[in-house]
Each structure stands twice: as C-alpha cells, then as structure tokens.
Amino acid sequence: MSHNNEENGPSPNKRSRFHIRNLLPHLFNDIQSGAGTTNFKNYYRQIDYETQFNRKFKMMGTTGKFIIEKLPGNPEELLRKIIQDCMDQTVDESKNQSINPDRLGALISSQLLDNDIWIPIRKLEKDTIDNILTRFQLVSQSKIEKGSLHGHPFTIKIQTLGISSLPTNESIRGRAPQDIATDCFKLKEELFIRIANQNNLCLFYALEITKKYVIKELGDRRKFNKYMQYNHRQMKDVLDLIKAAKIPNDLPEYDAVVYVPIVVDFWNNQYKDKGYKFKVFVFGGVNEKPIFKYGNENFNVPLSIFHSNNHFDGLRNVGGMFGVNHKYCFTCEKKFRKSKEHDFRCKSLCRLCGRIGSERPCLATQQTISKNVMIVGKII
Fold first, then answer.
1. pLDDT value for 354
2. Which H or E run includes 211?
3. Highest taxon of the source (predicted)?
4. Mean confidence (pLDDT) of the chain
5. How far is residue 339's CA from residue 375's CA, in Å, rounded to a whole number?
6. What's the whole-model pTM score?
7. What region does 128 belong to: left with phi over 0, alpha with psi -120 to 50, or beta?
8. Comparing C-alpha atoms, which of 244, 342, 330, 327 is closest to residue 293?
9. Which of 362, 306, 354, 299 is nearest to 329 (CA)?
10. CB of 93 closer than 8 Å to CB of 53
C-alpha cells in the first residue's frame, strides 16, 4: 500500500481515503461506476462471528471473519461499511448486557498484511472509524504482488469497555511507592519479582519485567538478575513500551482493568511471528482465582503479577503461594500437588490421546491441539 507522502496531507474538508484499489488491482477492470445507493451486502460475505463478554470488568469482544467477493464502484465505502457494522454490533452487544461502552479498540488481520492493523483501546469518538481507516495507509503491503484481498479471509476484532459502568471497588490501580510496604500476606520473598519504581508506572514495570523473565528474553537467569540491578535500563524499557502502545506516561495512577488489555493486545501483535500468545493474570491474595485476567483462550505464555497496597509486583511461581510443591493450572485456575490427579480432570486434556497442552502433535488425530491451554504455574 502506498504511503501518504504529501507534506501538507489531505485538505481539512476531505476525509483520508484508504486506497483499496492498491489491494485489489485486478478487480478494478470489471468495476462499473454509477450513481445511486449501493447495497454492500451483495459484495462481501461474513463467514464467522463470535462474541465474548466479561461481566465483572464490563468488557465485550466480537470477532468477525469476512471475504470480499466483488467490488462496488466505491470500494473505500465497502470497507468502511464492514468495519462500522462490526463496531455497531459490538456496541449493541455491550448495551444488551446493560453496559454503556465508552472505550473501543480494534485489530484487523489478513494474509495480505505484513502486520496486523492494531488500534489500542481508547475513548470512543465519532471519528474512530476514520482513525481505523487511516491506519491502513501506514501499513506495508509487500505481499501485493502475490495476491489481493479477493478470496482471502480477513478478520476484524472489536473490543469495547465500559469504564463508567465499573464500580470504584472493581478497579485495580497502581501508583508511586508507598511509605509503608505490605508484607504480601507473609508470602515468601522468592515468589516475587520485586518492582522498585520511583514513579507511577509500577503496573508496566511488573508486566514488562515479568514478560522478560517468563520468555527468557534476556537469556539465562544470571543475566536477568543482573538486569534487575539496573534501574535505568528497566525505566527505558518501560517508557519504550508505553510509548509504542500509545499509553500516556503522566497519569497519577494506572488501572490494570484498562491498561492490561492494551499491553496484551500490543504484545500479541508484536510477538506474533515468534508464536507467543500472552495472557495476564492479576492476583490479589492467596486465592486460586485471579482478580483480573486478560488474553486469548489459546494462550501459551501466562504472565502473573501481584497487586497489593496500590502496587504491582511480578510473580515467579503462582503455585508457591499455596504451599510447598504446589503447582497451578492457568486453564482450570486451580492449585494442585500431584499432576496425575489434576491432569485427569484438566480442561486441556485431549480425550483422544490423553495429552495435555496446546500446539503439540496429537498422536490420535495427527493434528495440533490449539485450544484450552494448560500451563503449569511454575516457570523453570
């Protein structure tokens, strides 16, 4: 896709145009121009649609998969129509749950796109659709010579959040360090990745550093421990994260309910080529159930952080919170000691081959198990 290289950009009275002609060049020879209202339903087909609702945190998500089969004379409006319908359906689904959505984010993916088009969750405005369409102009289309959107499914994922509908006691906020530190319910120190920030960004420190620990981004344990001694490196990484995810860095506090989804969606897009699928679990005490979680059901990288006294720390070993030799299943959200006893009841158990987990060759079906991931809570 071509970029807009004009110095002054489009004139104020014109809407930025998404050059869909560049994505579907071979179809334009057959397009007939004409006046009148176009029935866009005749030009595309919806092949899948699903919804997911988190009542506790007032979050609605919809995922639609589409195929453009032919183009009208105004192809830009066809794409606008599809995206707007997805947004409207998600808002309506949220209102059906008695939630008034005031935040919206989007993720659009296709085999044609080198990178997914990602719009972080932000305040819902009248020009949200224009912002989404404008992002298309910023995405490289190096696969254009190999094909087009015609005949290729593309997916639109919309998420809405009703921040105004959340009771104040449902928020999970972090801010600058407090004078009186919590003893974290007398939990052992080795369970934690301690965050010693001097600003209001402890949530993002906990997320970024725990991510590095779990996926071994820095190498071995010795290099990670050395990294923990350099506060300036940690701060740089955190500031880079919130800048890339378009998160303001000057708020007095940050709510995990609002900002964890933004970071998880950003990482799932950033690390897509490496196969990482993140899901964050926020714990607030010695309780098997997390106080908040966010991520796809087919996750393969669980990240755990701990919230207490308006501060976030990373967690190395969730199972260790419940006693010696305890493990934790993130799929079932249950503690256990003997794997054999838990595995028999685990939601990730393949009934055909008896194996547990995702993305493993199933001996019975010779297919990849791609759903209902079970990850043991202790990262070695």
1. 60
2. helix 202-214
3. Eukaryota
4. 76
5. 12
6. 0.58
7. alpha
8. 330
9. 299
10. yes
Q: Give tens-digit pLDDT for 348-364.
A: 776 666 666 554 444 44
Task: Enumerate residues 6+ apart whose C-beta is below 8 A from 108.
Answer: 83, 116, 117, 118, 132, 154, 155, 156, 157
Give residue 225's pLDDT: 92
- pLDDT (tens digit per residue) in 135-187: 766 654 444 434 455 568 889 999 998 877 666 555 677 766 554 444 445 67
Domain residue ranges in the chain? 40-166, 171-368
CATH placement of domain 40-166:
3.30.1490
Q: How far apart are the first and last CA of the chain?
A: 44
CB atoms within 10 A of CB 99: 21
In sequence order, which residues have a C-beta less than 8 Å from that of residue 321 and are 6 or more positions away? 187, 191, 283, 286, 315
Tokens matching residue 94: 């949220």
- Tens-place pLDDT, residues 105-120: 888 888 777 667 778 7
- Which range has the top average pLDDT, 258-267, 317-326, 337-346? 258-267
pLDDT at 145: 39
User: For residues 252 and 241, what is the distance between their CA atoms, to the nearest angstrom?
Assistant: 18
Task: Flag the least confident range among 128-137, 151-160, 264-273, 321-330.
Answer: 128-137
Backbone angles phi, psi at 217, to 5 degrees: -65, -25
Round the CA-based radius of gyration of the chain to a whole number and report it.
Answer: 23
How is residue 333 written in tokens?
């959200």
- Determine contact, residues 267/275, Cβ cutoff 8 Å: no
Report helix, strand or coil for 351: coil
> How far is it, in rounded angstroms, from Cα 241 to Cα 61?
24
How far is C-alpha 141 from the geometric centre of its chain's CA atoms? 23
DSSP symbols for 297-318:
TT-SEEEEEEEETTEEEEESBS
Choose the weakest-confidence range: 57-66, 189-198, 286-295, 366-375.
366-375
- Among residues 148, 109, 129, which one has the least CA distance to residue 21? 148
User: How far is Cα 195 from Cα 203, in angstroms, rounded to an integer?
Assistant: 9
Apex CA 46: angle with CA 44 and CA 48, to 5°?
Answer: 160
Q: CA angle 12-13-18, nearest 5°?
A: 85
